[in-house]
Design brief:
The chain is of the alpha/beta class. 27% of the residues lie in helices and 28% in strands. The strands form 4 sheets. The protein has a 6-stranded mixed sheet. Keywords: Hydrolase.
């Protein structure tokens, strides 16, 4: 394996899907022109909208959503692997899905993954989120070939569930993607430490493109996109929440080196208990 130049797109998506896609396309084109072979955008690239009625008035099924066509064309035009970190789409049962979509250099849809863990939390100071009220959770972990290696897909709140990343790594993923739209309180407190933990636990590269700043719907996100190496070091990051591009070179072989030094993925043991306390 050899090093691959990657680019993470940091955005501030708003309530107009076409404008969001225009912004994403400009940044993806710039990244590809600068030599990136794997490019990833953040969670809900196409739409950040917390009002339920307005959200569902603009959602489209996957086969009708312009994001799918535009990202496929971008990938094919620039001969890159392109991860639409996630798109808000209308599912077949009438609920929304938060879907990560990986396109290959021929414009083919290599893989898609629906966010499994719904962000149903009460952070404090009146900030409350109930993602499951609008979105249907996924139920299957997904890996795919990209960036000259195997990539494991996840989205945002999934980051807090270490078992998912262990499953992905044990299935062969050397790179883990975490496109996100972290809230400012949780981002400030937990973003970097959780990303580094997932890298260390699995001996994997972690690529985390983020939404950042104050969005049109009033939501505030953390930004600070990051690339973490398999030993847990931050090798590239944006120290702000402004839209932009984060570049890095990743060598998938370093995942094998880290896993040889600390073979934690092979040291699992069956465990029973604990018994409930009386």
């Amino acid at each position: 394996m050899s090093a691959v130049k990657i680019a993470l797109i940091q955005m501030r998506s708003g309530t107009d899907p076409e404008c969001n896609l225009d912004d994403a396309e400009a940044l993806v084109r710039e990244a590809a022109a600068n030599g990136a072979k794997f490019v990833a955008t953040p969670e809900t690239t196409n739409l950040v909208q917390k009002d339920r009625e307005t959200l569902f008035s603009v959602l489209r099924p996957q086969d009708e959503d312009p994001a799918m066509v535009r990202f496929a064309d971008l990938a094919a035009t620039h001969r890159i692997d392109l991860l639409g970190g996630s798109f808000a789409l209308l599912g077949p049962d009438g609920r929304a899905v938060n879907r990560s979509c990986l396109f290959g250099p021929q414009g083919e849809l290599k893989a898609s993954y629906d966010k499994i863990h719904m962000f149903d939390v009460e952070i404090g100071s009146g900030e409350r989120w109930q993602e499951s009220a609008n979105y249907k959770p996924g139920d299957r972990a997904v890996i795919a070939s990209a960036a000259s290696t195997v990539v494991g897909l996840s989205v945002c709140y999934d980051l807090r569930f270490a078992y998912l990343y262990r499953l992905l790594a044990k299935a062969g993923a050397r790179v883990l993607t975490v496109p996100s739209a972290f809230t400012r309180p949780t981002g400030k407190a937990h973003w970097e430490v959780l990303l580094r933990a997932r890298a260390i636990e699995t001996g994997s590269w972690v690529l985390a493109p983020a939404q950042g700043g104050r969005h049109e719907d009033g939501r505030k996100t953390w930004g600070h996109s990051m690339v973490i190496d398999p030993w847990g070091a931050v090798v590239a990051h944006l120290d702000h929440d402004e839209p932009g591009i984060l570049y890095a070179e990743i060598d998938p072989a370093k995942a094998d080196e880290a896993r040889t030094r600390i073979p934690a993925l092979h040291n699992d043991r069956p465990v029973t208990g604990p018994d409930p306390l009386a």
